[in-house]
Structure to design on (224 residues):
């Protein structure tokens, strides 16, 4: 009887895991990243511009594995290749958790001279030549712009920002976001979205010559 119960429990666990895999595509949950690891995490790539410090560390915060990011008068972006892994028709929802603890002082995503954010997550559709024709949606926690603001970056013309959180009211709290990327793409560009090829997370404070700090938890694409 005990063996049967053990087998039944094992089958249930396998079925549950399979259902979870079918219902979502995990981009990163940090579970395989060693705690205390610093710099660019395994499986991610750094940027090819500026002077990033990658003041990043894998930590456990409030019981969850996370990427802890800090910035002091610099900007750091890391990217992950997701080409061929995401079918927006099946899994159009991007879901992630984040926590911001320090906002770059006076930053404003919609102004070139103040284009800093404590936490950014970008979905990328590269097009040749990538520097001028790529399409990038950046979901950001802004310092001053109201929630719901959509604006094209004055600094990087391929990026359109969508402000999901703003200001200090929810600093220090873990929050979970869920966005229909296909719908957002249609709203921003007027076209049906192809499947994205990359995803990035970033932090910067160089335009405001200040500091910023945030955390990213699991990132995944999900079914409706």
């Amino acid at each position: 009887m005990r063996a049967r119960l053990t087998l039944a429990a094992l089958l249930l666990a396998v079925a549950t895991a399979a259902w979870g895999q079918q219902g979502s595509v995990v981009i990163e949950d940090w579970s395989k990243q060693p705690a205390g690891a610093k710099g660019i995490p395994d499986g991610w790539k750094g940027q090819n511009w500026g002077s990033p410090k990658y003041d990043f560390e894998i930590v456990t915060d409030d019981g969850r594995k996370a990427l802890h990011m800090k910035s002091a008068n610099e900007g750091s972006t890391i990217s992950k290749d997701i080409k061929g892994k995401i079918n927006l028709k099946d899994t159009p929802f991007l879901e992630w958790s984040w926590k911001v603890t320090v906002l770059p002082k006076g930053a404003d995503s919609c102004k070139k001279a103040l284009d800093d954010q404590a936490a950014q997550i970008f979905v990328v559709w590269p097009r040749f030549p990538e520097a001028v024709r790529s399409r990038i949606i950046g979901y950001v926690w802004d310092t001053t712009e109201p929630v719901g603001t959509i604006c094209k970056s004055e600094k990087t013309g391929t990026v359109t920002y969508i402000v999901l959180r703003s200001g200090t009211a929810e600093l220090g709290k873990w929050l979970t976001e869920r966005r229909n990327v296909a719908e957002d793409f249609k709203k921003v560009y007027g076209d049906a979205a192809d499947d994205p090829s990359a995803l990035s997370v970033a932090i910067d404070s160089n335009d405001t010559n200040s500091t910023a700090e945030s955390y990213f938890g699991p990132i995944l694409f999900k079914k409706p």
Remarks:
- Residues 25-222 form a domain with the Jelly Rolls fold (CATH 2.60.120.260).
- The chain has a mean pLDDT of 92.
